[in-house]
Amino acid sequence: MKYFIDEDQRKASHSSCYLEFQQGQYHDKCWLDTSISISDEVWNSRHVSDLILEVIPEFDFYGITIVTKVQWDNILTKSQSDGCTCKEIIAEAVPWAAKCFETNDVFTIIGM
Question: Can you give the pLDDT of all 112 residues of the chain as single tens digits?
Fold first, then answer.
């Protein structure tokens, strides 16, 4: 993957400057093996928060945000619009999200 990394790659980076996408509800711990993560630098440079906030006004870059299937579908749709700076990032997360929604009603974005 170009934008997201798995947990082994995140550990190898020796950094925690990532937002974690965790399957299901927050599990009271971070950095699960089934999670994917994206660096805060990439997230900010591509203005991903702006897109998420259009769909989830309560999104918290520094906290925990629950994303439902309907919200994810709306994020995906909005990411396809002309001028969206994070279209490729959202597209890269699609397979992970599809797998997540096979067994979960939501996923959680754990911020900085």
Answer: 899 999 999 999 999 999 999 999 998 999 999 999 999 999 999 999 999 999 999 999 999 999 999 999 999 999 999 888 999 999 999 999 999 999 999 999 999 8
CATH code at position 102: 3.40.1760
Domain that holds residue 95: 4-110
pTM (predicted TM-score) = 0.95
d(CA 107, CA 14) in angstroms, rounded, equals 25
